[in-house]
């Protein structure tokens, strides 16, 4: 992938690239961005007020992500900096990842694979390694936007699951098409066999999936997080699994990221962890990059962004 270099050069844009595969420290970020007019942010660097204030020419921040919890939108608005993200193009890939995790946890797939690696093939014949049927069970969606809706469609079509959701407003299309029902959080926790998070991370909902909340879930429930690691308290999740307050968990996002190799979640039964690959297919990442570059070029030319957050 040339990360859009050709398009940027053709548009007459001088590009400076941070080549290292890690988030920058705040100081590195300021040093790298101080003179730029536009910023294409791939990854989860914290784009805060201090950074924006230190970059007097900055007109546009283009995110190569749909999530924007790492950006201070209020500061950007005050400083007249446009911010764009990449909604829509990653809906299916992310819903596919959630669907993959639901099935992998329900069938204990990652753990049983580890057993084979430990020369323990017969483990799958033992009753404690049996999975859970998803057919006819209840899927609870926390935050029913386009990704949650795409997951609900998959779960309805393949497993005829009942769909309930907790959201600020009603999703009429999901109600009409899938018979989805909007419920309070307490009901979502009490009724769902699988709970999957598809909301934006905010200061209000950070850490919402904690010990108290896990204890309100069914003991047979599966917890899925493909949104942001900040939604769950990782120690509380480990305890909830160890104490069997819930049955299993599938994570594409961890808290913190990256997850360290000695994290107990990685060797627990009924747990599947992926390294934040929700949108990582060649097709989706290409579409995200195209959209992010469209937004960047529009912002640099003083035009409205295709997908503008502010
Ligand atoms: C997103 O687009 O927000 C994904 O989580 C990638 O970071």
UniProtKB/TrEMBL annotation:
Highest rank taxon of the organism: Bacteria
In this chain the D-isomer specific 2-hydroxyacid dehydrogenase NAD-binding domain maps to 101-278
| GO CC terms of this entry | cytosol
EC numbers on record: 1.1.1.79, 1.1.1.81
What protein family does this chain belong to?
Belongs to the D-isomer specific 2-hydroxyacid dehydrogenase family. GhrB subfamily.
- Top enzyme category: oxidoreductase
In its keyword annotation, does this UniProt entry include Oxidoreductase? Answer: yes
Keywords per UniProt: Oxidoreductase
Q: Where is the D-isomer specific 2-hydroxyacid dehydrogenase catalytic domain?
A: 5-308
Q: Molecular function (GO) terms listed? A: glyoxylate reductase (NADPH) activity; hydroxypyruvate reductase (NADH) activity; hydroxypyruvate reductase (NADPH) activity; NAD binding
Please give the name of this protein: Glyoxylate/hydroxypyruvate reductase B
* Enzymatic reactions: (R)-glycerate + NAD(+) = 3-hydroxypyruvate + NADH + H(+); (R)-glycerate + NADP(+) = 3-hydroxypyruvate + NADPH + H(+); glycolate + NADP(+) = glyoxylate + NADPH + H(+)
Note the SUPFAM superfamilies from the entry. Formate/glycerate dehydrogenase catalytic domain-like (SSF52283), NAD(P)-binding Rossmann-fold domains (SSF51735)
